[in-house]
Amino acid sequence: MTQFLQACFDGLALGSQYALIVMGFVVIYRATGIINFAQGGALILGAYMTYNVSNTWGWNFYLAIVVSAVVVAIFSILLQRAMLQRIFRETIGVIGGLLLWAASVYNGASHAVGVVVGVVAGLVIWQLAARIEARVGARGPSELPLFGAIMVTIGVLFVVRQIVATIWGFGELNVEDPWELDTTMVGDVILQNAKIATIVLAALGLGLFFIIDRYTRIGIAMRATHFDHEAAIAQGISTKLVFATAFGLAGVVAALAGTSAASGANLITPQIDTIVFLAFPAMILGGFDSPGGAVAGGMLVGIFQNLVKTYVAQPPGWFPTDDLTWLGAGFERVAIFVVMILVLLVRPYGLFGTEEVRRV
After folding, report:
1. Which residues of the chain have pLDDT under 70?
2. Is the sign of the CA dihedral 188, 193, 199, 204 positive or negative?
């Protein structure tokens, strides 16, 4: 029983991370219909911003989490502006400025000098891009097509990963959070304080979203836009504000997920975003458009994955065999995708997703 309870607690902490990640995907998908792969980049940025503010600048760790959430929310809103409003010159200017800032720091310049170089270069590139756009720019709609927007999010993920690696390096870094390796004993079950904090952090982040979604005007507008964009616009709802809010909330939960993934005994590297792809089965199981499904799917997948990991390493006494090593290392990651496939064969829209009805 102790082994089972230990595996469930560890799985609950992992599921809390998954729930935060999936919530970011679901919020954006409900508002725009886009699967935003740049959530991985937002998670990386959140983890490294928390590290930089708390370790490099020496600020309070909890304040660092707030700063990280604000920075990543702004990043996500700017991404939304670039994708859905196709602000070509602003996008090119910001990307060029960031790249030159990173290149300056990488070649030995201070962060202050890098910022100046980045700002000046960004303004110059913005002006040049504006002139090019005025001459040869498309005269079509201001929004990117759906497939193009998704491709942009994939590109942003790799750009962010490279910029982060350029600024903070490719090596492993320790966030040095207040919980570190401290533990609490409940009977024979060992509860790592960092994992308890992850569960609390997830509860706060998810609770904030549900309060906004259910009890605020912007939350009502987000739900109305989800059901019918045209009807929402006809009722005077600003879809631009709804989209920006959705991306901002997704940025906040991504920053919390990044911070939790880097806390405790964990170390951060630019490859920390791989947890995003492991959270995909949770999103599909819960349903692309269901916030409640995001939480339930994340918890179910986290607990199931950790139970499989525990019992493959040490099968219970009643099991027919005591050797499951032939399944291979990391089988728990494969198992969650197997479950996802089986569920989709029965419920193609996930356990809590809304079935799409098409009229012919």
Report:
1. 83-91, 111, 133, 136-146, 318, 354-360
2. positive
295-312 confidence digits (pLDDT tens): 888 899 999 999 888 888
Spatial CA neighbour of 142 closest among 204, 90, 215, 197:
90
| Cα-based distances in Å from 47 to 32, 78, 318, 356 | 26, 19, 42, 36
Alpha-carbon span 157 to 161, nearest angstrom? 6
Cα 11 to Cα 8: distance, rounded to the nearest angstrom: 5
For residue 192, list its beta bridge partners: 183
- Based on the number of CB atoms within 10 Å of its own CB, is 138 exposed (0-12), middle (13-18) or buried (19 or more)? exposed
Domain boundaries defined on the chain: 2-86+142-346, 87-139
From CA 197, how far away is CA 184, in angstroms rounded?
12
Beta bridge partners of 268: 173
Instruction: Give the DSSP letter string of 272-297.
Output: TTHHHHHTHHHHHHH-TT-HHHHHHH
pTM of the model: 0.82
Give the pLDDT score at 44: 93
Q: Report the amino acid identity of residue 262.
A: A
* CATH match of 2-86+142-346 with 1.10.3470: yes
Task: Give the tokens for residue 351.
Answer: 């356990």
Rounded to the nearest 10 degrees, the angle between the axes of helix 88-106 and helix 111-136 is: 150
